[in-house]
């Protein structure tokens, strides 16, 4: 009988013990990894919840929205200020569970973060439901948003008479929007906006202003520009009235043939006047009526003037139309294209 035979069962027991230990170690590693992943996803879910809650409330320190974003910019700080002034913000309906994703190719910020996940945000705005895939990842400071929940407005500039208008959302002057002369895709071109309903208004202070128009901004592609109607203010009406009076006053001076709007009316057979004769102009009869409407509608004028005809001094009533121009050097309205006719 061999002296080694009794040792065989001991070797087998050791092999089994090592195998069991290895399985236990692997299982422990798997459990630890699962616990860590689960805990990490919980942290991501909390970060996503905090982010959308700030957007929904518009309260508190909204600059946190910027610091939670992987690529924070001054434009995002401005977006937070604009969000606080919005007329309506989102209502968060639900957040999906974080799910691991590959870094989206169209999100450069995601490539700098670890363990990217996507959380589906379901929300309501202006009576309609929407979803947004919120992508987050980790860096040394915690979970950061790689796909900011922002959109923009497709502003079409210049706005009026080849002059840039001032655009306001709420009471805040908007500094960033595309212009004809803008080049590149830098931070200064387009103002990002968090999803909300904003009160948009255009102005050329102090001469033109629009009635505030609501615009619904959603994250992602740009929202079409609202089309508010620019209307003349009291300052514009005063400038146009003065310009018309100046044109009328020119009728009795050396600039009559270049400025006076009534020459053709006076020298008709019916009017029987001679605008080339000295002293033919006797001035406006009373104060003319000058209506300055929306920019596209222009200027309407009516009134009467006195002049010398062969039979003596007469009064002629008139009506007319003109257009609103704008002197870009002085940034003041002008009266252009004035045409008058004898009123019936």
TrEMBL record:
Name by which UniProt lists this protein: NTF2-like N-terminal transpeptidase domain-containing protein
Membrane keyword on record: yes
Transmembrane intervals: 15-35
Record's keyword terms, sorted: Membrane, Transmembrane, Transmembrane helix
Record bears the keyword Membrane: yes
């Amino acid at each position: 009988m061999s002296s080694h035979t009794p040792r065989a069962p001991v070797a087998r027991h050791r092999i089994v013990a090592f195998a069991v230990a290895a399985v236990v170690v692997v299982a422990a590693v798997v459990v630890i990894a699962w616990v860590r992943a689960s805990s990490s996803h919980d942290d991501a879910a909390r970060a996503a919840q905090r982010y959308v809650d700030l957007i929904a409330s518009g309260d508190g320190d909204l600059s946190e929205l910027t610091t939670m974003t992987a690529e924070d910019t001054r434009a995002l700080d401005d977006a937070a200020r604009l969000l606080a002034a919005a007329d309506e913000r989102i209502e968060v309906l639900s957040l999906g569970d974080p799910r691991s994703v590959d870094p989206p190719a169209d999100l450069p910020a995601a490539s700098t973060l670890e363990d990217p996940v996507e959380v589906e945000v379901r929300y309501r705005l202006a009576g309609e439901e929407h979803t947004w895939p919120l992508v987050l990842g980790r860096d040394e400071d915690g979970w950061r948003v790689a796909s900011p929940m922002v959109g923009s407005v497709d502003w079409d500039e210049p706005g009026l008479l080849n002059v840039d208008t001032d655009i306001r959302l709420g009471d805040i002057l908007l500094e960033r929007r595309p212009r004809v002369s803008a080049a590149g895709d830098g931070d200064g071109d387009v103002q990002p906006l968090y999803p909300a309903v904003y009160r948009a208004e255009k102005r050329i202070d102090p001469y033109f202003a629009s009635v505030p128009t609501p615009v619904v901004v959603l994250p992602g592609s740009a929202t079409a520009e609202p089309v508010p109607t620019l209307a003349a203010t009291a300052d514009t009406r005063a400038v146009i009235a003065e310009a018309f009076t100046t044109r009328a006053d020119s009728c009795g001076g050396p600039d009559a043939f270049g400025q006076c709007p009534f020459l053709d009316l006076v020298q008709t057979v019916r009017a029987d006047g001679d605008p080339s004769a000295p002293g033919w102009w006797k001035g406006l009869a009373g104060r003319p009526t000058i209506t300055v409407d929306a920019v596209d509608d222009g200027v309407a004028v009516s009134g009467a003037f006195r002049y010398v005809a062969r039979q003596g001094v007469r009064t002629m009533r008139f009506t007319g139309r003109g257009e609103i121009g704008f002197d870009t050097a002085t940034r003041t309205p002008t009266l252009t294209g004035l045409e008058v006719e004898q009123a019936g």
